[in-house]
Amino acid sequence: MSDVDGLDDLLARAAERPRALARPELAALLSVEDESGIQSIFDAAYALKVKYCGKRVAMRGIVEAGNVCAKDCRYCGIRASNRNLTRYRLTQEEIVAGARFAAASGYGSVVIQSGEIESEAHTRFIEEVLRAIAPLKLGVTLSLGEQTEDVYRRWRDAGATRYLLRIETSNPALYAALHPATCSFERRVECLRALRRCGYQVGTGVMAGLPGQTLEDLARDIAFFRDIDADMIGMGPYIPHPDTPLAAEAADWSAERSLRLGLNMIAATRLALRDVNIAAATALQALDPLGREKGLLAGANVVMPNVTDVKYRAQYKLYADKPCLDENAALCRGCLQRRIESIGETVLWGVPGDSAHFFARTRPGV
Ligand code: SAM
Ligand code: SF4
């Protein structure tokens, strides 16, 4: 028996009526704590994942292109004020080498992620990188933070097809508590709109288990993903980093709760949004050796193996206990393939694995 009355009805409604769950219903789903109730939710979400994405997992090789960041998000290990790390920026050749490795490994897509830098030199550098990797014919996701619409357009014109910009939380008051006063919730939302106007497959997401975050906040986050009509969701559990101010406020943080919320968010998002791409974030694996597999069985369909040279990985620590710090990318490929096949899924080799939702909204009826 579940601790939410009418869970079976709720799941039946989610399966029958597309994108119909209301915020209180989403909060009810997220509140389920008993094992059998959670398993029913995961099973329903997984069935929708199989229906819309198949029993297949899309891969994106992630290149951590640099830990230089102008911002000071209070939760992030590479925030500008953290002096306990060596700053690095990959060269164009190093980023291209990561993309080449992703292509040779059959990943079909690459994600270029870094701290946030707004400058003409950086914009031009990324344009050059994008033009250099274009012949590899990969899907290319950027995750380079807030930029002007002009910059987003230039990177789109240079070959980027997707952009991931997590809203982090859709509660403006919580957003303000997590960021310095110079950051603006409204600008972040406007950036997501600008990305959409530029023709990207737009990804967003949040951290689950943040200090001060309620289940209602998380339900509102899923409604936000739906309202902004996101194509891709990249979200994961919040994990404290000791060199950040938020860690001091996370005294009652529990790995178990953050993991559970991270998985429940994947399942509830699949039930609410259906055909979007959802990543099983590496942070899940930091909390549980089987975290990514559990994410896939809760409704995720994307995994992002790290293809950054191991010598840089320890300097891109967003949170404590980041996994695979010393596992080179070739080992990582084999390990992930085994893990994915062990749960009865197959890897979608050599294709970009675009968001079905993007095609449904841009080419209806095709
Ligand atoms: N700088 C870009 C941005 O902020 O959009 C992209 C890189 S940023 C490191 C990628 C994501 O890392 C953020 O959106 C945030 O959700 C996540 N992150 C940062 N610190 C984290 C933490 N302590 N626990 C879990 N995720 C974290
Ligand atoms: Fe910089 Fe992104 Fe970390 Fe914020 S989350 S400090 S923008 S790298």
How would you summarize the topology of this molecule?
Blueprint: H1 7-16, H2 23-31, H3 35-53, E1 56-59, E2 61-66, H4 92-104, E3 109-114, H5 120-133, E4 139-143, H6 149-157, E5 162-164, H7 172-178, H8 185-197, E6 201-204, E7 207-208, H9 215-227, E8 232-237, H10 245-248, H11 255-273, E9 277-280, H12 282-287, H13 291-297, E10 302-303, H14 310-313, H15 329-342, E11 346-348, H16 356-362
Parallel strand pairs: 1-10, 1-11, 2-3, 3-4, 4-5, 5-6, 6-8, 7-8, 8-9
This protein binds S-adenosylmethionine and iron/sulfur cluster.
S-adenosylmethionine (SAM) binds at residues 75-76, 113, 115-116, 143, 145, 165-166, 168, 207, 236, 238-239, 241, 283, 318-319.
Structure, explained:
There is one protein chain. The chain is an alpha/beta fold and 366 residues long. It is built from 16 helices and eleven strands. Strands 2, 3, 4, 5, 6, 7, 8 and 9 form an eight-stranded parallel β-sheet that branches. A three-stranded parallel β-sheet has the order 10-1-11, covered by helices on one side. Helix 6 (149-157) links the parallel strand 4 and strand 5. Helix 4 (92-104) runs parallel beside helix 5 (120-133) and helix 9 (215-227) runs parallel beside helix 11 (255-273). The longest helix is centred in the first third of the chain and has 19 residues, at 35-53. It is globular, with a radius of gyration of 19 Å. The model has no long low-confidence stretch (mean pLDDT 94). Residues 69, 71, 73, 76, 78-79, 115-116, 145 line the site of iron/sulfur cluster.
List segments where confidence is low: pLDDT < 50 over at least 5 consecutive residues.
Answer: none
Shape: globular
Tell me about the biggest sheet?
A: 8 strands, parallel
Beta-strand share of residues: 5-15%
The distinct ligands, each listed once, are:
S-adenosylmethionine, iron/sulfur cluster
Q: State the separation between the terminal residues, measured CA to CA.
A: 43 Å
Q: What is the H-and-E element order?
A: HHHEEHEHEHEHHEEHEHHEHHEHHEH
Q: What's the helix count?
A: 16
Integer-rounded radius of gyration: 19 Å
Q: What class, by secondary structure content?
A: alpha/beta
Q: Averaged pLDDT, please?
A: 94
- The total beta strand count reads 11
The helix fraction, in percent, is 40-55%
